[in-house]
Every structure is written in structure tokens, then in C-alpha cells.
């Protein structure tokens, strides 16, 4: 069985497009499936739509949060409730093409991979400032962490039970999933795909939430921020010693070095 986990925050416009498209792909794949929607504290009709879908289709399950906890929390809750042999994370806005599910299934079931993930090749249609900031962030995190978290390597992936259970075993409070995927390892096949604009509705991220997300990633997977105060301390210590030595040997107060510091 395949479990599709779909975090949803104010997706009333996307769900009527996502559900039929994902269902039609899954029905052609000759395997059992479940759609686990996680309502992440939506303030629109998302929950009402999910209730309707679950009443008319036994493949649909939904979970609902008491407030907006964020996409990472929604993904984790979905994973905890998935009973499939293979679990897939997908966005509700069709930016993760359901058509790729067939190839992903083939890779994990017949080609010996533990995971098959989408590799987004471009950022067409995205706000250029966000593109620049995201690329800079992935460059920075790539250098600061010794984990493979490149731009385009997102959450869209199908994983086998072994990988799913390893992820569930990690009891991190800040669950930066891109880091967790890379941290647990496992043999992953990458399938390239082109970015498309979301099918309906607006992106749920603003610069503030993206910044918080980036900081979570940095603080969870790199010791660089924790080492920074140590480096600053070392620098100040060396400057103080140099200042002292200059004062002793020249008889002048080395105010210029203090100014530099
Ligand atoms: N999402 C969520 N909680 C949030 C933000 C987003 O569950 O706090 C969901 C959203 O409904 C969508 C997915 O995460 O299914 C990706 O969000 P979005 O498309 O807005 O992100 P983008 O594609 O702009 O990175
Ligand atoms: Mg999107």
C-alpha cells in the first residue's frame, strides 16, 4: 500500500484540483493506497472539504491541528499515522506532479532503492527575491552542514518502510525534514522535474516564516552558529593581548586597536 501525506494550510482552492488528479494516477497503479490529508490550522474551508472527501471516499483520511503548527509538524503527524509500505510527501497545490508517482513506485519496488525523490530543476514562476535568498541559503547550509541538502532537493519523495521508521525514530523537536532525510541516509534515486506555478491559491510562506524555517535548518544541522561566540571570544582575546603588548613596548596606549575591536 502507498500512503500519500498531504499537509494543507488554507488549500480550499487547490484541493478540488489535487484530489481528482492524484486519485486518477493512483488508481492506474494497481496497488492499494490511502490519502492522508493534514489540516494545519486552516482558516478557510479546507477542513470542510476534507470531511466531505473522507465521507465519500474510504481511501481518504484526514487529521486536523488545533492551530497552524507548520508544514514540518503536519508531515510528521501524517507519517505517524501512515500504514503504507511506501510513504510519499506531496504538496496540495500540484507543484509536485502526481504523474511522477508511477516512476517513484517502480524505483522503490523494483530497482532496489529505499527512496525515490523529485529533484526540482528550476524555480520558474517564483518571486526572484525569494529565488535569490533560497539559493543563498542552500549554498550556505551546504557549506556549514556536512549533509546533502541542495537547492531543488525537496520533500516530494516516496520512501520504503525502513526509511520511514528511521525518520519516525528521531524525536527532534524542530523537525527540519530536508535535513532529516539526508541525515538518515538510505539509497535515493532522484527524478528531475520542472517547477510549475501552484495550481490555485497563494504560497503559504512569507519572508518571516521562510527566515524562521531557514534558521531552524541551520541550528538543527550545523554547529557553526554555536561556534560563532567562541570565534568572537578568541578574536577579542587576541586583540586584547596585542593591545597590551603594544602598550608595554611603545609606552603608548594602543587606542587605535581598541577602536578596531
Ligand atoms: N503548508 C502547511 N503549513 C504551513 C505552510 C504550508 O501545511 O504552515 C502546506 C501547504 O498547504 C502546501 C505545502 O505545505 O500543501 C507547501 O506550501 P506552499 O505551496 O505554500 O509552499 P511553496 O510551494 O511556496 O514553497
Ligand atoms: Mg507550493
Defining key terms:
binds uridine-5'-diphosphate, 7 strands, binds magnesium ion, alpha/beta, seven-stranded mixed sheet, 261 residues
Question: Could you give the topology of this structure?
Answer:
Blueprint: E1 2-8, H1 15-27, E2 33-39, H2 46-56, E3 60-64, H3 71-80, E4 86-89, H4 101-110, E5 115-120, H5 128-144, E6 153-160, H6 161-169, H7 177-184, E7 188-193, H8 207-221, H9 224-250, H10 255-260
Helix pairs in contact: 5-8
This protein binds uridine-5'-diphosphate and magnesium ion.
Residues 91, 93, 95, 198, 203 line the site of magnesium ion.
The helix-and-strand class reads: alpha/beta
How would you sum up the global shape?
elongated
The mean pLDDT is 88
Bin the helical content: 40-55%
Order of helices and strands: EHEHEHEHEHEHHEHHH
What percent of residues are in strands?
15-25%
Q: Largest beta sheet: what is the strand line-up? A: 3-2-1-4-6-5-7
Distance between the termini: 62 Å
The number of helical runs is 10
Amino acid at each position: 500500500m502507498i500512503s500519500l501525506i498531504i499537509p494543507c494550510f488554507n488549500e480550499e482552492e487547490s484541493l478540488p484540483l489535487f484530489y481528482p488528479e492524484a486519485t486518477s494516477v493512483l488508481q492506474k497503479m494497481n496497488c492499494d493506497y490511502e490519502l492522508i490529508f493534514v489540516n494545519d490550522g486552516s482558516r478557510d474551508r479546507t477542513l470542510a472539504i476534507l470531511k466531505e472527501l473522507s465521507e465519500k471516499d474510504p481511501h481518504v483520511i484526514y487529521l486536523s491541528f488545533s492551530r497552524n503548527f507548520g508544514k514540518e509538524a503536519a508531515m510528521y503527524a501524517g507519517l505517524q499515522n501512515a500504514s503504507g509500505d511506501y510513504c510519499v510527501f506531496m504538496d496540495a497545490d500540484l507543484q509536485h506532479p502526481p504523474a511522477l508517482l508511477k516512476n517513484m513506485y517502480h524505483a522503490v519496488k523494483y530497482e532496489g532503492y529505499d527512496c525515490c525523490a523529485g529533484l526540482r530543476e528550476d524555480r520558474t514562476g517564483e518571486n526572484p527575491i525569494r529565488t535569490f535568498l533560497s539559493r543563498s541559503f542552500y549554498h550556505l547550509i551546504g557549506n556549514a552542514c556536512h549533509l546533502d541538502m541542495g537547492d531543488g532537493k525537496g520533500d516530494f519523495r516516496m520512501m520504503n518502510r525502513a526509511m520511514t521508521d528511521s525518520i519516525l525514530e528521531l524525536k527532534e523537536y524542530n523537525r527540519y525534514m530536508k535535513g532529516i532525510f539526508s541525515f538518515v541516509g538510505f539509497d535515493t534515486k532522484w527524478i528531475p522535474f520542472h517547477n510549475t506555478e501552484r495550481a490555485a491559491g497563494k504560497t503559504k510562506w512569507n519572508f518571516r516564516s521562510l527566515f524562521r524555517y531557514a534558521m531552524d535548518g541551520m541550528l538543527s544541522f550545523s554547529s557553526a552558529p554555536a561556534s560563532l561566540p567562541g570565534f568572537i571570544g578568541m578574536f577579542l582575546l587576541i586583540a586584547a593581548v596585542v593591545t597590551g603588548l603594544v602598550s608595554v613596548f611603545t609606552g603608548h596606549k594602543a587606542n587605535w586597536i581598541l577602536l578596531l575591536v
